[in-house]
Design a protein that fits this description.
The protein is of the alpha+beta class and about 525 residues long. The protein has one domain. It is built from 15 helices and 13 strands. The chain has a four-stranded antiparallel beta sheet. Strand 12 and strand 13 form a beta hairpin. Helix 11 crosses helix 15. The longest helix has 18 residues. It is globular, with a radius of gyration of 22 Å.
Length: about 525
């Protein structure tokens, strides 16, 4: 496609000039991530001592996670597949209480939610038992100092978790090379404005942001760990999650760490930095397997479900289909990212099943072929020094049949924006708003209003304000709401955001088809 060729050519020019290469080197370098992780743990440990939980009780896990499991979800059913066979939970640290508050990794990462956490299931768990380990003040509440003395008080304290499935992340203001100040905070919970729990000055203290738990499955396709990419590998992530979310007094042993990351898996053969010391074939894969109208997503030549996905991981490597010219093989970028349901486009029946399958196929084709004029995306337009880039959905969701970015490339598409630049079609009500003034660096003098500073809390750089990674798209139907801040309640809201943000002008039929396709992933 002409636009495709133009994008690749622009990327190569930028790489030769050094602009994007320097930006990428900066993102991949040691840029404050270790300090951010240490500060987050120190904050969690301090909050545990100042505001201890009054609730007790440990997370209960099933005795076995079978090799193949199907769970119902709002669109049909999602499946979990373990290529190396079933897991006995009593013998794996992922399911063990390693901290002080009854939580395990399983608390926020369960199969019926695509190994993430849906807001609906958070509400169901609260209604069934408000003392469930999910509801702990350290990060489940809007602030650790919240009143949780009654069920009514708890419902208020855990309002963001119940409404949008959000977990509070307390990160320190960067100390080295900081290019900005926080000049104003509008925080309905007072967590950021209280010096005990939040900021102590315009450049010091802790910032609380609220983010969705990422899936603990399909990790063989990772190019970055956590929304802001602050974790270098799954081993450090297992330690930091245990010390932070579970409030453990010490790190889990090396044996327990190995158990956790082996269960999660990270089997990409060409991602050694993320996947070192993890046995081949390990891990869990999850994907939608059944659609209420289209029924089984692997029939009639389709390739939905986690078994087909698990076979895809052997083909993955960092940069496998990167549109910015970083594919180490030199192969050109292809916008045809998904090829799961092409055969369904040849169906001609008029039953509800056939019509749904045709809609899914049309949605996949739209995802692959819709031309998008990419403007105002920090990490793309600025990196390439191009005000307008002809692209596709796959420009930012390029990993084949997976949909995340195949290199570490945090982007700001506007989801974190607030104030006059609030994102269209998204609900950011209830999130704090930070006014950020850039005091040095290339963007000195500029002001930003955001609900989440994003990767700037790791690097201290204004260019990274609002930048976050794109998640793996498989298993979407099970884990609403969407985006890092839960601002899209449904997949229709996601499509509406992109349509309005980039002036795509989808028809109502096209929007419905795209939703059908995304629901089938």
């Amino acid at each position: 496609m002409p636009g495709n060729k133009v994008l690749v050519r622009l990327a190569l020019i930028a790489l030769l000039a050094g602009s994007f290469g320097q930006a990428t080197a900066q993102n991949m370098s040691s840029d404050g991530a270790a300090a951010a992780r240490a500060g987050a743990i120190a904050h969690a440990q301090k909050m545990r001592k100042l505001f201890p939980d009054i609730d007790a009780g440990a997370q209960v896990a099933p005795a076995i996670i079978p090799e193949f499991e199907i769970d119902p979800d709002p669109g049909g059913a999602i499946a979990t597949f373990q290529p190396n066979g079933a897991t006995i939970t009593a013998k794996n640290g992922f399911f063990q209480n390693l901290g002080k508050n009854g939580r395990t990794c399983f608390t926020c990462h369960q199969p019926q939610d695509g190994w993430s956490l849906s807001a609906q299931h958070a509400r169901d768990r609260f209604d069934a038992n408000p003392d469930d380990p999910l509801f702990r003040r350290v990060d489940g509440a809007t602030c650790p100092s919240d009143d949780v003395s009654t069920k009514q008080a708890k419902r208020k304290a855990y309002s963001l978790l119940l409404a949008k499935g959000l977990i509070r992340i307390g990160l320190p203001m960067p100390s080295d090379g900081l290019q900005f100040q926080i000049t104003e905070v509008k925080d309905p919970y007072g967590c950021n404005t209280n010096p005990t729990t939040g900021l102590t000055g315009s450049t010091t203290g802790t910032i609380s942001v609220y983010r969705r738990p990422l899936p603990a499955a399909n990790l063989g396709f990772l190019s970055a760990i956590m929304w802001d990419g602050r974790e270098p590998d799954l081993f450090t992530q297992s330690v930091d999650a245990t010390r932070g979310h579970a409030e453990a007094g010490k790190a889990p042993s090396a044996e327990l760490q190995q158990q956790i990351v082996t269960f999660e898996g990270c089997t990409g053969p060409n991602t050694p930095a993320l996947c070192a010391n993890i046995p081949a074939g390990a891990g869990i894969f999850t994907a939608q397997i059944f659609d209420d109208a289209g029924q089984f997503l692997f029939s009639n030549g389709a390739k939905g479900g986690p078994i087909s996905l698990s076979q895809q991981v052997a083909k993955f490597f960092i940069g496998v289909n990167d549109p910015l010219g970083q594919n180490p093989t030199g192969a050109p970028f292809s916008a045809d990212v998904f090829d799961l349901y092409g055969n369904w486009g040849k169906l001609h029946g008029h039953s509800s099943k056939s019509e749904r399958r045709q809609a899914i196929a049309r949605g996949e084709e739209l995802f692959n072929t819709t031309k998008i004029n990419i403007i105002g995306v920090a990490g793309l337009n600025d990196a390439l020094n191009q005000a307008s880039i002809p692209g596709f959905c796959g420009t930012c969701h390029d990993t084949p049949n997976v949909g995340n970015h195949s290199v570490k490339a945090p982007l700001n598409i506007g989801v974190a924006d607030a104030g006059e630049n609030s994102p269209p079609a998204l609900d950011i009500e209830g999130l704090p708003v930070f006014t950020i003034w850039c005091t040095s660096g290339p963007l000195a003098g500029q002001m930003f209003e955001v609900t989440d500073p994003g990767r700037a809390l790791i690097t201290g750089k204004c260019a990274d304000i609002g930048k976050l990674k794109g998640p793996i798209l498989r298993g979407l139907a099970a884990r609403a709401p969407y985006f890092h801040n839960g601002s899209a309640a449904t997949l229709r809201d996601v499509v509406e955001f992109y349509d309005r943000r980039f002036d795509i002008d989808f028809s109502e039929q096209q929007k419905a088809d795209l939703v059908a396709f995304l629901s089938s992933l």
